[in-house]
Structure formats: C-alpha cells, structure tokens
Specification:
The radius of gyration is 29 Å and the shape is globular. It is built from 36 helices and 21 strands. By secondary structure, the chain is of the alpha/beta class. The longest helix is centred in the last third of the chain and has 25 residues. Helix 5 packs across helix 6. Helix content is 50%, strand content 11%. A hairpin with a 7-residue loop joins strand 18 and strand 19. The strands form five sheets. The protein has an eight-stranded mixed sheet, with helices on both faces. Strands 3-4-2-5-6-1-7 form a seven-stranded parallel sheet, sandwiched between helices. Strands 15-16 form a two-stranded antiparallel ribbon. It folds into five domains: 205 residues, Rossmann fold; 209 residues, P-loop containing nucleotide triphosphate hydrolases (Rossmann fold, 3-Layer(aba) Sandwich); 109 residues, Winged helix-like DNA-binding domain superfamily/Winged helix DNA-binding domain (Arc Repressor Mutant, subunit A), CATH 1.10.10.10; 153 residues, Sec63 N-terminal domain-like fold (Orthogonal Bundle); 71 residues, DNA polymerase, domain 1 (Orthogonal Bundle), CATH 1.10.150. It binds adenosine-5'-diphosphate. The site of adenosine-5'-diphosphate has 13 residues, from helix 3.
C-alpha cells in the first residue's frame, strides 16, 4: 500500500493525522497525483466520496511550497480561490478551512455580502472563499486581481448546467483561464455523463469513478418489500394503518439508523414530518427520549419568535423528527443539520435542496416521489442527476455498514419502471447556458466596462474560450430545424421517455407486477434487457462545418447585443476609433450594480416615464409607485402565486391603480396579468414590512417562510440601491433621495418617521418605535433628554442610553474596530 507521507509536506501529514485520515480513498489517489504535478483537474465522482480533501491537499501543498520559495513574505503569496454555489456552503467551508488551515498560518477569508458591494478587502487573505456570483462581481470590477491568483477550486462545477446561474460560473472560469493561463483549475463535480467535455474544455485531466466509501443499495418499495438492484429483497414488517414512509422510517429507527425523506414540495415535507413524531417516539430506544426533550429545550431558546413554522418544528422535535426547506431561517436550518449529524434527530423530511447543500448522511434515504411539480409543464420526472445527488446522501462512513436508497411511488407499475430507469440510468449530459440572451448581455457589458474586450472582434475571440463555443464546435448542441443558425438543447426528457417505454414493454411479460414473491427480482431482467439494447449515439457533423456555424452564430448574437447597448445608451463608440466601445455612465452603473442590462433599462425608462406622467398629472406618485417599480425587474426573485392570493391582489390593484407607473393596468385574465400580479404580491409584502407590521404576521398572512421574507428584503435593497444610482442620470436629487429613504425603510422595516432614529447604532425597528412612542421623535429631543429618562424607555437601558448620547455628541467618532480594519495601502484602483 502506498503511503502519502512520501511526497506530502510534513505540515499536511500532521494535519491529516490530526483529522485521523490514515488512507486516501482510491479516487483521491488518482486525482491528487496529477493535481500535485500542476495539471488542471475535473473530478467527477459520487457525492461524499471525498472531493474536498482532494482539492485541499493539492492547494495546501502548492501554497506551502510557493510560500517557502517566496521566503514566506505574505505580500508575495499568491491567492487560492474556493468557489461554491451557495452562501450556506461558503460559510460551512470557511468554518472548516479556518480551523485546519489557520493553524498553518494561512489566512482564510470569506465574503458573503451582496453582489454589488465591492469589499475587496477579502483579497488580503491567502485562501478566499466566495460564491460564484460574488467572485464574478469582484473580478469584473477589478480584473487585475486575476494576476494574483495561483489556483481556483470550483466546487459543484456541473452547475454550469444551471438554467439561471450556470452562465455566471462559465463566464467566470473563462475569464480566469483567458486572463491568466497559469491558474491551476480544480473542478469538483457530481457524476455527469459528459464530464469528458468539461475536462477537455478546461484542458484538464479527468478523474471519474463510481467508488463510494460506503456500499450503496438502491431499490424501490412495494407491498412491504424493498427490491434492491443487487437482487436482494428486504421484507419490512407489516404494521397496521401505516403508510409507506412511516413503515420505512419506523423500521430504520428501530434498527438504530437515521432517515432522510426527500419530498417534492415544502408543504409535503412539513406534512410528512408532522405525521411522524409519535410513531418515531414509540420506535426509539429509551436512551433517545431524553435527547428529544433536550432538542425541544434547545430549540425553544433559539426560536423566541411566535412563528407558526417554529411551533411546527418544536412539535416535531418531540419525536426526534424535523423538516428542512428553503423557507426556514438560517439558524433553524443550522440547528436541524447540527442535531441530525450528532444523532439527536432521527428523521428529516426535506426538499431536494438538502441534497445539494451541506453534508448530512443517513443510513436510509427515502425518495417519496420521482415527480416534481413545475408551473409550466405540471408534473414532470426529475433529472437523473438529481436522483443521484439525493441517493448520495445514503450511508454514513464509520457508522453505517451500508446506505440504502428506497424509491416510493403511488402507481405500482410506474414505480417499478421508473425506479429501474433511474437506478440503472446515467446522469444527463450538461450544457452551457450561454444561449440565454439576457444573461449573456450582462456579461458582454462587463467585458466592455472592464476593458477585457472592447471591440466586437475581441469579444468574439473571448467567447471562443467558453464552454458554449466548445460545445457548438463539437456538435453537442443540436441544430434547430426551423432556423439554420439558432440552436436548442437536445431534448433529454424525450430520450429518456423512449428508453423507459421499451423497458416497460419488457415487463409486459410479467402477468402480475405486484406479486413480487413469485417473480425474480425486477432489476435482473431489466439489466439483461439494457445490455442487449445499446443506447442510441447522437449523429455528429464534421468539426469544420460546426466551427463555421458556431462563428456565424457568435457573430450574429454579439452584433444584436451591441446594437441594443448602443441604442439604450449603455455604450458609445470611441470618437476616433469607431470600432472601440466605451461604457457610458449608465453602462458603468449597470455593470457595477450587477443587475442585467435589460433590468437597468427597465428601471431607467420607468423613472423617466413616471416623471412624464407626473407632469401630465396622470400619476399620484408615492412610496407604492417606487416599491412596485423595483419589483418589476426579472432579477427580482418572484413568489409562487396561490389561487387564494388573487382576491387581495385584485383589490390592492384597484385601490392603488393611480399610483402604479404603467401604461396599462392589467386585469385578471389578461395576457400579462400573472407577471403583474406577482409584482403586486411583492409590493404588498414590502408595504407591510415598512408599515412596521410584525414579521410573524407578515409571514403568516402571505403564507411565506422567514427565509422568503429575507430574500425579498435583500432583493428590494439591491434594486433600490440600483434605482437610486440610475435616477441620478435623468431625475433631480429628490427622486434619488426618495429611493435612498425607501431603501433605509426596507432595510430596517420602518415607517418614514423612524428614519433619523435607526441611524443610531444599536437601534433597530423595535427600539426606534419604543423611543418614538415615548416622545423621543427626533435626534434633538433625544440629545436634550437626561440619561436616566432615556434609560427607562422600554428595551433601552442605561448602557444603550449612554451609547446613544455618545453617538449624538460625537458624531464623527468611528468605532475603533472599523479604523483598525481599514487597510493602510489601497491596492485597488
Ligand atoms: P464530497 O465533496 O465528495 O461530497 P466530502 O469532501 O464532503 O465529499 O467528504 C465527505 C466526508 O468524507 C467528509 O466528512 C470527509 O472528512 C470524509 N473523508 C474524505 N476523505 C477521507 C479519507 N480519505 N478518509 C476518511 N474520511 C474521509
């Protein structure tokens, strides 16, 4: 057996010893060696098979070597970027790395602030953890940063395929590669079918493997039996009056294992969780019962709010059960994951977001359904890749002898055929999403603003380094039949459907699909069948032909975008060099605020239109007008509408029709009505928030989660900041002030009257209201109030009263900590 101590830095060896890692897993061996030689890597291996450690070892070795060569001069140390898709993941990695790397004298930093905030200070660190969007925004503002990067670790790189966010990751990687070819790129991916394409694009060595640290048994559940792919059948004891999920969780908890139940909606996750606590309590070992009591006590301390959802979690915890979805608050999610990982919680019912997020292995993973509801196509089958990610959560190394995935379904025939298709199936191919016009615009503008490419030819040359161009050239995209030069994605669903039908036909032979006892295991015949029917290869046209078409495609698209930019005053041509583009002030604001050009144009035109309407006395301009304006951009995350939403929305529209900046007010049934109604719902929520309605009431009234409210507030702040900037171009200062004031109100959730008070440190929406209601309505009144009187205002107290007075008397004094953190030398221009 090979031993890693032969070639690793002693500091790394000690670190591994401390973490009790005595051996690398086989795919780790395979990846670490070429990685240490400096190759770019694409590592496409199953979830939980140790991808992070691969990247960590390569990065540490590289870093330690380089910093020894530069005699440990911190200034000369080149940076390592760690990119991941979610803030929650970034925070988790930051905690993890800070603990282990910090000991080696390596500075580990994170920035999770909003994308339009330019906190370059994070680049003073050696290892920098950022979300893809944050990294893209910092680097497009200051491309020089790229020179100082020696390595980029890209976690979940398969998300290049993501419809809304993939393009940013692809552009970021392209920019890094193009502007600094010396950067070593390590891409970590879930298992995907065309990982080879990704690797070839990145000029990387490809590591693939289906090795897993814990054996995985995959199967489906019918009539109290689990049929596994390996041919085994597990009988689950019959319990009267129990549904499938209850049966399967009770059995597993009795055995001493934990269970994740993946559901296809938040509502389903909650209701399944609510059905379990009593049953799980009965199934639990006596020594677990005090743990559940403690869970409830600990949670009570966390959740002082009176939210319905908190009450629900509290109730579930009595049986060691919880639910997990994106509507919960950060601290609730952390609480649940932490207590699942320390075995106090036995069952989590969750939405698929848990599979893509933090590490939560369980002995049994139940997939309640393979269908998902979508607003446009109704009920559809999920991608196989998503199934694999959920399945990857099964089996906890060291604790579980094996992991089990059990698929459920309501229709027995469909279940059998779907389960076999998914369990035997390969993950889908991934595709570049540069075909998205709006998002491409945003990135093209950033190329011009950052001067990375400011002529049409340079832009096209840049785009030739993208995954998009690679896939066009290699014929991965299928030509659209209607138009010679526009492309669409190959229809994956269609391919899968036909394959499934054939398998189903094979099962026609089995007279009674439910009578499993008498038949062989369903997987055996399916495998034989698949072996004899090779899947259909896609026809490839010649590379020459593809290249010609790809160039033509790029040329047409870029020309269209440039025309739009010129028309909308985002760029102009340079005076003496007509082919060189220069951003206008508007173009710069748009790029820096990180909103899409279409959204920026919408905001600008709406502001101008509002002023025209106002002049013609056709509009009563007020806060509702501006709030509605900033909910319109496509970048504002919209909420799903329920049937019951329409009545209040309609009456709101009637009440405020005179305040809305629109050419036409849509009514129910009209073509653009549903988009409009979604904007109005957001407007209503924001209006309540800045009317000081308590958070629990808003959340309940609109039937949303606290997480949703946070997201809406964040989005609103972002677009209000942007609108304030844009308004400077055409409107007078009062409009800008209006946007800034509303932004302040949205940030704190306050009425206009509290604006001066919340500017004081330590004073938020609740304390400001207490001060105001006690007669302290202005800073002047607070200043002249005696300390003792101020201190007796509810929730203020002596300490805060003193701090308030100090702040007012000494407005220019900055807290010490801020001065200390300001860098002495500015490195950013
Ligand atoms: P992935 O990113 O592939 O989903 P992780 O990197 O999160 O997986 O690793 C899963 C778990 O396995 C982590 O808890 C990690 O500490 C552990 N692990 C990784 N490599 C080893 C190893 N060689 N020996 C023991 N445990 C390991």
């Amino acid at each position: 057996e090979e031993n890693y101590s032969q070639f690793l830095h002693t500091k790394i060896i000690n670190l591994l010893k401390k973490r009790k890692i005595t051996q690398f897993y086989p795919p780790q061996w395979e990846a670490i060696k070429p990685g240490l030689e400096g190759n770019n890597l694409v590592v496409s291996i199953p979830t939980a098979s140790g991808k992070t450690l691969i990247a960590e070892i390569i990065a540490l070795q590289k870093f330690l070597k380089a910093s020894e060569e530069s005699k440990n001069e911190p200034k000369k140390r080149k940076k390592i970027l760690y990119l991941c898709p979610l803030k929650a993941l970034a925070n988790e990695k930051h905690k993890e790395f800070k603990k282990s790397w910090g000991d080696l004298g390596i500075r580990v930093g994170i920035s999770t602030s909003d994308v339009d905030q330019s906190d370059f200070r994070v680049f003073f660190n050696d290892l920098i953890i950022l979300t893809n969007e944050k990294a893209d925004s910092l680097i497009r503002l200051n491309p020089k940063l790229i020179e100082n990067i020696q390595m980029v670790i890209c976690d979940e790189i398969h998300l290049i395929n993501d419809d809304s966010r993939g393009i940013t990751l692809e552009f970021l990687l392209t920019r890094l590669m193009t502007l600094n070819p010396n950067i070593q790129i390590v891409g970590l991916s879930a298992t995907i079918k065309n990982a080879n394409e990704l690797a070839e694009w990145l000029k990387a060595k490809l590591i693939t493997s289906d090795w897993r640290p814990v054996k995985l048994k995959e199967g489906f559940y019918l009539k109290n039996k689990i049929e596994f792919k390996d041919g085994s059948i597990r009988k689950v004891p019959y319990l009267p009056k129990m549904d499938d999920v209850s049966n399967l969780t009770i059995e597993m908890v009795k055995e001493g294992g934990q269970v994740l139940v993946f559901c296809n909606s938040r509502r389903s996750a909650v209701s399944v969780a609510e059905s379990l606590p009593n049953k799980i309590k009965l199934a639990s070992k006596p020594e677990d019962l005090p743990l559940y009591k403690k869970l409830q006590e600990d949670f009570k301390k966390e959740a002082e709010d009176s939210l319905e959802v908190s009450k629900k979690i509290y109730k579930c915890l009595r049986g060691g059960v919880a639910f997990h979805h994106a509507g919960l608050s950060r601290s609730q999610l952390d609480f649940i994951v932490k207590n699942f990982n320390n075995h106090a919680i036995k069952v989590i019912c969750c939405t698929p977001t848990l599979a893509a997020g933090v590490n939560t292995p369980a002995r049994r993973v139940i997939i309640k359904t393979l269908y998902r509801y979508t607003s446009d196509k109704g009920s559809v089958l999920i991608p196989i890749m998503e199934y694999k990610q959920m399945a990857g959560r099964a089996g906890r190394p060291q604790f579980d002898p094996y992991g089990e995935v059990v698929i459920l379904g309501s229709n027995p025939d469909k279940l059998t055929e779907n389960a076999i298709t998914y369990i035997n199936g390969e993950s889908e191919d991934i595709y570049s999403k540069l075909s998205d016009e709006d998002r491409l615009q945003s990135h093209i503008l950033s190329l011009i603003v950052s001067k990375n490419a400011n002529t049409k030819d340079l832009i096209i040359n840049f785009l030739k380094n993208t995954f998009y161009y690679y896939q066009l050239k290699h014929g991965t995209y299928i030509l659209d039949e209607d138009s010679e030069y526009s492309f669409r994605f190959p229809n994956n669903t269609f391919k899968r459907r036909t394959k499934k039908k054939k398998i189903a036909a094979n099962f026609g032979k089995r007279k009674d699909p439910l009578n499993i006892d008498n038949s062989e295991n369903s997987f055996i015949s399916a495998q034989d069948y698949l072996k004899s029917h090779k899947t259909h290869e896609k026809p490839k046209s010649s590379e020459e032909e593809n290249t010609f078409k790809a160039e033509k495609e790029l040329n047409t698209r870029i020309q269209k975008i440039i025309t739009f930019f010129l028309e909308k005053d985002l760029i102009i041509t340079q005076k003496n060099e007509k082919n060189v583009f220069v951003p206008t002030k508007f173009g710069k604001i748009t790029s820096q605020s990180y909103v899409s050009p279409k959204d920026a144009v919408l905001i600008r035109e709406d502001i101008i239109y509002a002023l025209v309407l106002l002049q013609n006395k056709e509009l009563e301009l007020n806060t509702i007008s501006w709030l509605h304006l900033i909910t319109k951009p496509s970048g504002f995350h919209k909420l799903f509408l329920r049937k019951s939403d329409y009545t209040p929305i309609n009456s709101f529209i009637e009440d405020f029709a005179d305040n809305l900046i629109m050419e036409e007010i849509y009514t129910y049934g009209q073509k653009d009505y549903s988009d409009f109604a979604q904007e109005i719902k957001l407007t209503m929520i924001l209006r309540d928030w800045i009317s000081e309605i308590p958070e629990p009431d808003i959340v309940e009234h609109f039937n949303i989660g606290s997480g949703d409210l946070r997201r809406i507030i964040n989005n609103a702040q972002w677009f209000l900041r942007t609108a304030a900037q844009i308004s400077r171009l055409d409107a007078d200062a009062s409009v800008t002030k209006e946007f800034s004031d509303i932004n302040l109100r949205v940030s704190h959730g306050i009425k206009h009257s509290l604006i001066p008070l919340v500017k004081l440190k330590g004073i938020g929406r609740i304390r400001a209201r207490k001060l105001y209601n006690s007669g302290y309505t202005t800073i002047k009144l607070i200043k002249s109030a005696p300390l003792e009187k101020l201190a007796v205002v509810p929730l203020i107290g002596e300490k805060l009263a003193r701090s308030i007075h100090e702040q007012i008397l000494n407005p220019n004094a900055k807290p010490k900590s801020i001065i200390k953190r300001t860098p002495k030398k500015k490195i950013i221009k």
